[in-house]
Structure formats: C-alpha cells, structure tokens
Amino acid sequence: MPHESLNRSRYWDGDYYNEGMDAATFDKLKEECGVFGVYGHPEASALSFFGLHALQHRGEESAGICTTDGKEFYYHRDMGLVKEVFDNDRLISLKGSTAIGHVRYSTSGESQLQNAQPLVFKYRGGDMAIATNGNLVNAAEIRRELEEQGSIFQTTSDTEVVIHLIARSQQEDIVEAVKEALRRLVGGFAFLILVNDQLFVAQDPHGLRPLVIGKLGDAYVFASETCAFETVGATYLRDIAPGELLIVNQDGMREDRFAPMQRRAICAMEYIYFSRPDSDLDNINLHSARKRMGQKLAMEAFVDADVVTGVPDSSISAAIGYAEQTGIPYELGLIKNRYTGRTFIQPSQELRERGVKMKLSAVRKVVEGKRVVMIDDSIVRGTTSLRIVNMLREAGAKEVHVRITSPPYMNPCFYGIDTPSRNNLIAASKSVEEIRQAINADSLHFLSKDGLLEAIGRPQGEHNRGMCTGCFDADYPTEVNDEDGSCGC
Ligand code: SF4
Fold it and tell me: Please, what is the average pLDDT of the chain?
C-alpha cells in the first residue's frame, strides 16, 4: 500500500529535488581509474587502445598510453574519452612492444592534463612511467616529507610520490627500489610501472582494487577488469594477489612480493556497481553476483507489484534477479540515452531538468498505471533517486518501491572512489524512513550487509568474506586519517 505521508504533487519541484542541480546532473559515485598493460606484443599501443576502451566506464576524463621499444619511451595523454584522445596516426607513433595505459576520472579542480596518466619522468636511472588505480591514504604525509627533503612535484596526483620514492631510493637493484617504495604506501592501489625496459605490476596488501593478468600468444596483458581481455582476445590467467609484485622483462615474468598479504579486502562496490557486468572478479561473474543481490533483496523485502525495473546499466542484472525470485515480470521501465556526452548548456532550471531527461527516460507505456519496483545500486545524496522516482511517477507509475542492492552508503571511501563528504551522504544523517520520504518512494529497502556478502558469494572464513565494506560500516582495512575520501589516481 502507498505510504500515507506521500506527497504525490512533488514531481518537479520542492527544495530537495533542486538540491545539487548545479553540480553533476546525476550524483552517482564516480568510478576511480582503469589501467591496462602489455608486455611483448608488436601491437602494444593498439591493444592498449582497445583495452582502455573496454575500461572506459572506469574513467572518462582523460586517457593516456606510454610505450617503449626498450630504448625510448613514447607517450601521449589528453583530456577526453579514449576514442577522442587517440587516432591511428597517434597509435602508430607509440612504438614498441611494451605499453601501459590509463583512463582517469577525478574530482573537480583536479582534472588538469598534468594529472592525466601515465605519468612519465626521467630520473638518474633512465625513464619511468606509472599508471595507477586507487588512492593512497598516506600520500600527503609522504609528499610533505619528500618536499622537505628537496623534491619538486610536477603534479597534484598522489601517484607521483611513488615515482619520487623509487627515484630517490638508495637501493642499487631497481626491483629492491620498487619494493622499498611500495612498502611505504598505505591505501588501495593497483600499479603498472614501466622502468626502462621492465614492467612492474603491483597490488596493495589488502587487494582493494582489482587487477588481473592474461596471456595473448607469448605476450602478457594486465588490466583492471577481465572485460578488457575479451576485447583484445587475451586469455585470463588469474587475479594479482594482494602484496604481490610481478616483474616482467626479457627473461619472462617473475612472481615476487613486496609485502605479506594482509586482511583481504577487495572493494565490495566493485561487485555492486563499478565493474562491468561481463567482468569476473576473483572468478565471480559480476552479472551473476548482481542477479543474486536482486534475489536476496526479494527475499528480504518482497512487495506485491506489477513490474520490476532496474536503473541502467548497473542495476539491470539485479532487477532480473528480483523478477526471477518473485515472479513479477522484469520490464525496461527506464532507458538510458548513451549518446548524451556532457551537457554544458543548461541556462535555466527548466532546461536543466531536460538535461536529466536527456540521460534517462521512463517508458510510459511500461509503467503507466503500474506498481513499480525500481532497483538501484546505491543512494548517495538522494537527489538522483528522487529524480528517477519522480520520473516514473510523471510517466504514470501508480506506486514506486525502491530496492537498493547495497547497505546504506554512509561513510567516505579512502581507496579511490570519489565520495562526497559525510555531510552530503544522505544515509549518514537520515533513517531509512526519512530517506524514503526524501526520495518520494512508497517503500524503500537496502540490502543487508549479510545478504550482500552472501549474494556476492566469496568463500567464507575471511573477515567480511575478504571484502572491504568501509563505506557501509566504517570497517576500513587500513588506518584512515582524512575526512575527504577521493580518487588519488
Ligand atoms: S570504502 Fe567502500 S567504496 Fe571504498 S574500497 Fe571500501 S567498499 Fe569500496
């Protein structure tokens, strides 16, 4: 039954609805970054282009590739999508059989070209380039220390501290210098580091960010997600282990570590939202995991309804799961327009609201007169959910029941996800009932943490089944010392 206190006239007005309209049109959490690397393939730059294109959802602000032929480094990076940054001539100019590439998202004010990766430097030992996904909790502290010792930084990116630590190391052996640098770092990170003709691949000791290795003929390929391997035709070998360091050079690939594995804590939001549904994370397919989340939601909070719909794209799998579990038909009640790009021209409130509809539309014929279950992956500020619920109501939905495939998101992330400060996270200050009212839903349920962990299906035995759940319960795997979690890529 619809809730008594529902104010059905609140479609496109009201203070809450207008909050945040001048910021991003949608306040979804931002993916952090994506990395792709190749060692030993004559078409390394072209493969990187296709690999990064498959990882585009992880960062849409800038893209870059650095290659080497064993003698020189060649690189190009720029603001924009992968297909905008590179053309055929550019890729041909990136010579050599080894490459690292990067796609980046960053917070506003930090989106300068100088922070686009790979970062490339010359140092006394030769050339070095780095591409990373994640965030260092202690980057500011290390940076301060290095600046006091005379280091001059060229970017505001956390990643540059790693370059300085390697370059300043007293270790004769470059492998030892890299290990020494990595041991100083606290946070979630997946690194591809090119030093002259050697490629280093490292994952933080908790394994917070995903990183996988594959084979393409005799070449090794590395990527943030397995979907990139499908695109380039590579075979998945395995996930990089927490604390592991791979050294790839003309003698082949050597498996080493720079730190013992600590509490395994892969990011739960990768399973819920960030990674593509066709990727596998630690051998768990994300579409299947999300379907199970939808099934769990149905078990925890069934509601009698006429149709189930998912907010595209990340929640479609879960909506299918909810529909399968309940027998309520799954329908495409919401459609995402894939060709909007960025909306720069929004001169009036009315047109801004059109801007929202440019990105997402409700399908009137599907939802009109229906009781709709709307599945989404998370509620951040609440503004997006309110807009979508109102969009469904405006298209004639009789009731809108919101089901979320994550527990309430109430704490910032310190490991590479761009999260608003705690004050802006609606779940940090409002109860579930207050959030329901704020988003104008007839009912609202967040998947329980136990339900989530079970749905993802990682083996039992480890703390939180080997996952980080910090943004839901403040149970962070490392020390954290900063209110503002953001992407440090
Ligand atoms: S705090 Fe949340 S978003 Fe950040 S790594 Fe942990 S689970 Fe992922």
Answer: 88
CATH number of the domain to which 118 belongs: 3.60.20.10
Q: How confident is the model at residue 489 (pLDDT cuts 50, 70, 90)?
A: low
How far apart CA 428 and CA 7 sit, in angstroms, is 24
Among the ranges given (74-78, 345-349, 404-408), the one the predictor scored with the smallest mean pLDDT: 345-349
Q: Which of 45-54, 194-203, 413-422, 449-458 has the lowest mean pLDDT?
A: 413-422
**Residues that constitute the known binding site:** 267, 314, 376-377, 413, 468, 471
- 143 and 92 in one domain? yes
| Ligand 1 and 415: CB distance under 6 A | yes
Residues 6+ apart with CB under 8 A from 204: 134, 185, 187, 188, 189, 190, 242, 243
- For a ligand 1 pocket test, name from 267, 453, 467, 483 the mutation site with the most ligand atoms within 8 angstroms of its C-beta: 267
Q: Is the CB of 29 under 6 A from ligand 1?
A: no
74-86 confidence digits (pLDDT tens): 999 999 999 999 9
Distance from the CA of 414 to the center of ligand 1, in angstroms?
7
Q: Is 33 a catalytic residue?
A: yes
* DSSP single-letter state for residue 124: T
Res 225 pLDDT > 70: yes
User: pTM value?
Assistant: 0.90
Q: Are 275 and 211 in contact (CB under 8 A)?
A: no
* Cα separation, 153 vs 149, whole angstroms: 12
One domain, residues 126 and 164: yes
Q: Which domain holds residue 285?
A: 270-473
- Respond yes or no on whether the N-terminal peptide bond of residue 197 is cis (omega within 30° of 0): no
- The number of distinct structural domains making up the chain is 2
Atom of ligand 1 nearest to the CA of 267: 8
* pLDDT tens digits, 124-179: 999 999 999 998 999 989 999 999 998 888 888 888 999 999 999 999 999 999 99
The residue to mutate among 32, 380, 417, 465, having the most atoms of ligand 1 within 8 angstroms of its beta carbon, is 417
Judged on CB neighbours under 10 Å (0-12, 13-18, 19+), 238 is exposed
Q: Are residues 215 and 292 in the same domain?
A: no
CA of 361 to the centre of ligand 1 (A): 29
To 10 degrees, the CA torsion angle through 169, 77, 28, 31?
Answer: -40
Q: Distance, CA 207 to ligand 1 centroid (Å)?
A: 12
* Ligand 1 centroid distance, CA of 187 (Å): 11
In-domain check, residue 83: yes
What average pLDDT does the segment 320-341 reach?
Answer: 89
